[in-house]
Design a protein that fits this description.
Elements (H helix, E strand, L loop, with lengths): L1 H23 L4 H26 L34 H13 L12 H14 L17 H10 L33 E5 L5 E6 L17 E4 L2 E2 L3 E7 L3 E7 L5 E4 L14 E6 L3 E9 L14 E10 L9
Parallel strand pairs: 4-10
Antiparallel strand pairs: 1-2, 3-5, 5-8, 6-7, 6-9, 9-10
């Protein structure tokens, strides 16, 4: 653009030098008109050149400098394996680290419970430390050596915080871990880690030995009558009693072994139960025994058969099983 303007100005200057000669030679009017037009164009180009000369060039757009990286979380001091059931100040530090990382959303209580274990598993998976398995095999959910090394690599040490103890350094003292205040009949047993530090406690309650099952003797379970027309009322008698014993009558009904109230003289009072069979058929009644379950424990119902009798409804004989 500037080169073109300068070229035109040079041509205009040459014309200006020969202008007097052209006027003196009495040039015709058309030539004079063309000269005047060129002079007007020269004046316009001079004004345009002056405008371009005083207009400053646009300043270059500044390139923004990158913002400084935000400091990462503080580095927890972890010197032992941390797993489910552990407690101590280092658990608080681990929970705070996981909260800063966005994986722990509860209060830092200092107890390694299921919430902390799930948070460790999520952090391990996000960092590629381990993504499956079990605490005892792959360290899934445990702040072991690999996980602690990954934490050291992830976090930075604050200027006001001492450097963490190396992973391989044996602690000079164990964190305080008092036993629970709840009662344990057998006494609380301490659970220690590889350094001999107490991490948690367990209460082992010994199970009481089951009561020996009394073996049925002759006449331990009898019924009378053994047969008859429906409806047939049958009296079952036993030599044992208690809530551990039950009679199943064979028709879907059952009853505990009861001790009758004997008021008439000469009547033999034996534990048992009375049942009426409404429909004809052959039924097998059974005397069952289940030992007591220790108080406070849930035990499966395991019944043991001690005896049985067969009842025939629709016949005419009666008797007693011996």
């Amino acid at each position: 653009m500037l080169t073109t303007i300068r070229t035109r100005l040079v041509l205009g200057a040459l014309l200006a030098l020969f202008l007097p000669l052209a006027a003196g030679a009495q040039v015709s009017d058309p030539i004079q008109q063309e000269i005047n037009a060129l002079l007007a164009e020269i004046a316009a180009l001079q004004q345009q050149l002056a405008t371009l000369s005083i207009t400053p060039a646009p300043a270059p757009t500044p390139v923004p400098s990158p913002a400084p990286a935000a400091p990462r979380v503080r580095c927890p001091s972890l010197y032992r394996d941390l797993s489910l059931g552990a407690s101590g100040a280092d658990i608080v530090a681990l929970q705070s680290f996981l909260a800063d990382e966005g994986f722990f959303h509860a209060n830092a209580t200092g107890f390694f419970g299921p919430i902390t274990e799930a948070s460790v598993q999520a952090w391990q998976s996000a960092q590629g430390v381990v993504r499956s398995g079990a605490p005892a095999t792959t360290g899934w959910g445990v702040a072991g050596p690999r996980t602690r090394a990954a934490i050291l690599n992830r976090c930075v040490v604050s200027a006001n915080q001492p450097a963490p103890v190396p992973v391989s350094t044996t602690p000079t003292s164990c964190p305080l871990a008092p036993p629970p205040t709840t009662a344990c009949s057998a006494g609380w047993q301490a659970i220690t880690d590889g350094y001999g530090c107490t991490t948690s406690y367990k209460c082992s309650i010994p199970l009481s030995q089951p009561t020996p099952v009394p073996m049925p003797s002759t006449g331990a379970f009898s019924a009378s009558p053994l047969s008859g027309p429906a409806p047939l009322s049958v009296r079952f008698t036993t030599l044992v009693s208690g809530i551990e014993y039950s009679i199943q009558f064979g028709d879907g009904a059952e009853s505990p072994v009861l001790i009758p109230s004997c008021t008439s003289a000469g009547i033999e009072c034996k534990p048992g139960a009375t049942h009426t069979y409404a429909s004809p058929g052959t039924y097998t009644a059974r005397l069952l025994y289940a030992p007591k379950c220790p108080a406070g424990l849930a035990c499966p119902a395991v019944w043991q058969e001690l005896g049985q009798v067969t009842i025939t409804v629709g016949g005419s004989t009666s008797g007693t099983v011996q």
